[in-house]
Write a structure and sequence with these properties.
heterodimer, A: about 300 residues, mainly alpha, MetI-like fold, globular, B: about 375 residues, alpha+beta, Rossmann fold, OB fold (Dihydrolipoamide Acetyltransferase, E2P), six-stranded mixed β-sheet, five-stranded antiparallel β-sheet, 8 helices, about 25% helix, binds adenosine-5'-triphosphate, binds magnesium ion
């Protein structure tokens, strides 16, 4: 009698094949190519093994590390601003009794736009000649000169963060609102009776209940923001003079413009460490916050 | 001192009215129990006193101070919730001390107050646990401890025992009564369990559909219910009610032409032809020779027993009275077979007459 392939294996085979095709093979290929001087324009370079030369180059590359640092700065500012604004919005929406559904839907609008369109939109809004912002500032007499929103390094960073915050604050707002809905009413009422002012109730009861939701939002968003690309590419293209260059704009420039794919892939693997670090950090915080509430693990 | 006064207190949810103008005067140090079936507005009333619910109309004052517009924290009350409402992220110690922490009391005083409450309720071993690590009864105790630590003018309890098993409930009932004797504060206690109401209350407020039906001591409610609702709600087993018509001869004719004299207390209040309900408790219908000492007017009845429930010192008998199943009580019980015919005495002086249409008690 012929040995038959076990049924479970047959059933799982399509899944294995798909995962191999879309995840495993690209992963192995990119990892391999990061050890070669692979240039898209010269495919034969793919077969030259140069060991860790790409990684060594990155370690001393000022451009890479300033993009790395700028990404962390971008991440930190954007996440914190989004958290604060999202929390504020969620708390206010939670108070609304009439038309809350509509409001919640409107809240999601920014998430429905393609980031590229958001980028174009803000590129227009912050344009120094014809942009809305300068127009408004000048009509109101706040400023006579045209402010170089996307040309000055610091202002450009601000503009990008502004666009990012506009687009993604609602993620925080929605997740925190879900948290607010999930809070049991009893402890809140007990706190009121126990003598808490509204602020004290928020500080001592509501906030601890929200922490797990906040950390989930943080985890998701840190992964998202760490690979910010579209908005930056559209609004400033990493300029002026690399002053808004983030990891992913740098990588795509290295890989596709300079065609040095091997080096770009090596950068990718180094910057993944950043995402992993943030994820691990926020997950630790999440577990701690849940344990605090007696929810286990 | 801390009287609590409700005058014409109304609660509306939109168009629907949940509490219809309640008047109550609660004395300082009184243990008042609000009792009634589910949905009658007990919790709503209590929550209005606590300040967790707006007052739609009327006035509530605590200690001569109108509190309608005061937030809960300024009413100096504490409340024990049905679901305990402990703070899950705090240890027992922190739960107990939270209210004093918020009030910015000195640390030494907080420790003292917390330890004292823990001592009263036997929580010493549990102080460093989180609520998730406690049993239902222990959580209930922490909730009570939290209320004690606050040293409020008034304690409010909303069905604090309804999530506990029967044995624990009896035990906690005693503890609550002891607590009241020890601290002597005014207590307003909500329950739907008439046994809890009877055993705990100085005074009971019986509610139905957002109205007060009767206010009185447990014995007043038990002995002189104002209507059939009060008669059947208070006391276990519920009072037997038999439909009948008042005859010209001053008797009440039940079904199957069984006649029973109108009790003395009701004689001046019934007229011939009136449809009434005759009410008597199981304790007032007893087999001859198995009763408490029999006083006053007795009516002889011979009834067939359909079912028995032996309870040890007494047996509940389900007997057939003119086609109606009534409950009777047999003291010093002997075994009774279903279908057995027994001679009973109905104690007429303890029997009530209610108007059949309105349910109102007819007595003077
Ligand atoms: N938030 C609300 N909105 C609308 N109606 C409500 C609300 N809360 C309570 N009610 C209504 O008010 C009435 C009284 O409710 P309440 O909670 O006071 O009852 P209860 O006597 O405490 O009952 P239970 O023994 O079940 O707790 C009920 O008919 C209930 O449906
Ligand atoms: Mg209730």
């Amino acid at each position: 009698m012929r040995r038959r392939i076990p049924e479970w294996f047959v059933l799982l085979l399509p899944a294995f094949i798909v995962i191999a095709a879309v995840v495993l093979i690209p992963l192995i290929f990119s990892l391999y190519s990061s050890f070669t001087p692979y240039k898209l324009t010269r495919p034969s370079t793919l077969w030259r093994w140069i060991g860790t030369a790409n990684y060594e180059k990155i370690l001393t590359d000022v451009k890479f590390w300033s993009a790395f640092g700028r990404t962390i700065l971008f991440l930190t500012i954007a996440l914190n601003v989004e958290l604060l604004l999202g929390l504020l919005i969620a708390l206010m929406v939670n108070k609304v009794t009439w038309g809350q559904r509509t409001l919640r839907t409107i809240l999601m609008f920014p998430m429905m736009f393609s980031p590229i369109l958001v980028g174009f939109q803000f590129k227009f809004i912050f344009n120094d000649n014809i942009g809305l912002v300068n127009n408004a500032l000048q009509s109101l007499g706040v400023s006579n000169a045209a402010l170089p929103w996307l040309v000055d390094g610091n202002l450009a960073m601000f503009s990008i963060i502004f666009a990012e915050v506009w687009m993604s604050t609602s993620v925080f707002a929605i997740l925190i609102l879900a948290g607010l809905f999930a809070i049991p009413q009893d402890p809140l009422e007990a706190a009121k009776v126990d003598g808490c002012t509204p602020w004290q109730t928020f500080r001592h009861i509501t906030l601890p209940f929200l922490m797990p939701f906040i950390f989930i939002a943080m985890t998701i968003r840190s992964l998202d923001v760490a690979r910010a690309y579209d908005i930056v590419q559209i609004m400033t293209g990493g300029g002026p003079a690399g002053r808004t260059e983030l990891l992913w704009t740098l990588m795509s420039r290295t890989g596709y413009v300079d065609a040095r794919m091997g080096l770009a892939n090596a950068m990718g693997y180094v910057s993944i460490l950043l995402s992993i670090a943030f994820t691990v950090y926020f997950f630790k915080k999440l577990s701690a916050a849940r344990a605090e509430l007696g929810m286990g693990g | 001192m801390t009287e609590v006064t409700l005058s014409n207190v109304v609660k509306r949810y939109g168009k629907q009215q949940a509490v219809h103008g309640i008047d109550l005067d609660i004395q300082d140090g009184e243990f008042l129990v609000l009792v009634g079936p589910s949905g009658c507005g007990k919790s709503t009333t209590l929550r209005m006193i606590a300040g967790l619910e707006d007052i739609s109309d009327g006035e509530i004052s605590i200690g001569n101070r109108v509190v309608n517009d005061l937030p809960p924290r300024e009413r100096n009350i504490s409340m024990v919730f049905q679901n305990y409402a402990l703070y899950p992220h705090m240890t027992v110690r922190e739960n107990l001390g939270f209210t004093l922490q918020i009030a910015k009391q000195p640390e030494a005083q907080i420790t003292r107050a917390v330890n004292e409450a823990a001592g009263i309720l036997g929580l010493d071993e549990l102080m460093d646990r989180k609520p998730a690590e406690l049993s239902g009864g222990q959580r209930q105790r922490v909730a009570m401890g939290r209320a004690i630590v606050r040293q409020p003018d008034v304690f409010l309890f909303d069905e604090p025992l309804s999530n506990l098993d029967a044995k624990l409930r009896t035990q906690m009932r005693v503890e609550i009564k002891k607590l009241h004797q020890r601290v002597g504060n005014t207590i307003i206690y909500v329950t739907h369990d008439q046994v809890e109401a009877m055993t705990l209350a100085d005074r009971i407020v019986l509610m139905r559909d957002g109205h007060i039906v009767q206010v009185g001591t447990p014995l007043e409610l038990f002995n002189t219910p104002v209507n059939t609702f009060a008669a059947t709600f208070i006391g276990s087993p519920p009072m037997n009610l038999a439909d009948g018509v008042v005859s010209d001869a001053g008797t009440i004719v039940l079904r199957d032409s069984l006649t029973i004299p109108v009790p003395k207390s009701a004689r001046a209040h019934v007229k011939p032809g009136q449809k009434v309900q005759l009410g008597f408790r199981a304790d007032n219908l007893m087999p001859v020779g198995h009763a408490v000492e029999e006083k006053g007017e007795l009516v002889d009845l011979e009834l067939t027993v359909a079912l028995t429930e032996p309870l040890g010192t007494e047996t509940l008998l389900f007997a057939d009275l003119a086609g109606l199943e009534v409950q009777a009580k047999m003291l010093n019980p002997r075994p009774v077979q279903p279908g057995e015919k027994l001679a009973f005495h109905l104690m007429l002086d303890k029997t009530h007459v209610f108007d059949a249409a309105s349910g109102v008690a007819l007595r003077g």
